[in-house]
Amino acid sequence: MNTEPNTEPNTEPNTEPHAEPAAAPVRFDTKIAVLLREDLAPWQRLNVTAFLVSGLGSHVPEVIGEPYEDADGVPYLPMFRQPVLVFEGTKETLTAAHTRALARALPRSVFTSDLFATGHDRDNRAAVRAVGTADLDLVGLAVYGPRNAVDKILKGARMHR
Fold first, then answer.
1. What pLDDT sits at residue 1?
2. Which of 139, 144, 25, 59 is nearest to 91 (CA)?
3. Judging by beta carbons within 10 Å of its beta carbon (0-12, 13-18, 19+), is residue 53 exposed, middle or buried?
4. Alpha-carbon span 158 to 86, nearest angstrom
5. Which of 157, 39, 161, 158 is nearest to 93 (CA)?
6. pLDDT in the model for residue 82
7. In whole angstroms, what is the distance from residue 150 CA to residue 104 CA?
8. Strand ranges inside the chain, DSSP E
């Protein structure tokens, strides 16, 4: 068994976000944000948020961190590597944010009011496909991208309370 310390330089790329001093909070260059229409019932807000972020996690794998494990060695699934910020706004705010997200071509997911009446993925996709972009009755939007771009997309929205 070799007990000598490893003196070779670490050549693996750093995939963790850049943090300043150890005590400073991690500052991400990107943002995951969900915008919900303000008139949703509490159960709808939770449901829409869960659906929206699942789309980002499946399409943008770099937002997913490493798997978790507790002190007893029980494994858990990986989650987002950064916070998900949840905002709310009017129907008009949501429509404007959707337009800006499309213009910036950022990864996004949508939830329309029609999806509350469907029961599974196939019907969800058919409901969205049946309506033109400008006529979507949006109740939720999730977007991922550079912080500044996401901030501009969410102009007029406020943090969810």
1. 45
2. 139
3. buried
4. 9
5. 157
6. 93
7. 9
8. 30-37, 68-69, 75-76, 84-89, 108-112, 138-146, 158-159
Contacts of 27 (CB under 8 A, 6+ apart): 17, 18, 19, 20
* Of 31 and 14, the one with more pLDDT: 31
Tens digits of residue pLDDT in 61-84: 999 999 999 999 999 999 999 999
* Rounded Cα distance, 159 and 31, in Å: 14
Amino acid at 36: L
Q: Which two tokens stand for residue 128?
A: 């969205």
Please give the average per-residue pLDDT across 76-100, as a whole number.
96
Rounded mean pLDDT, 40-69 = 94
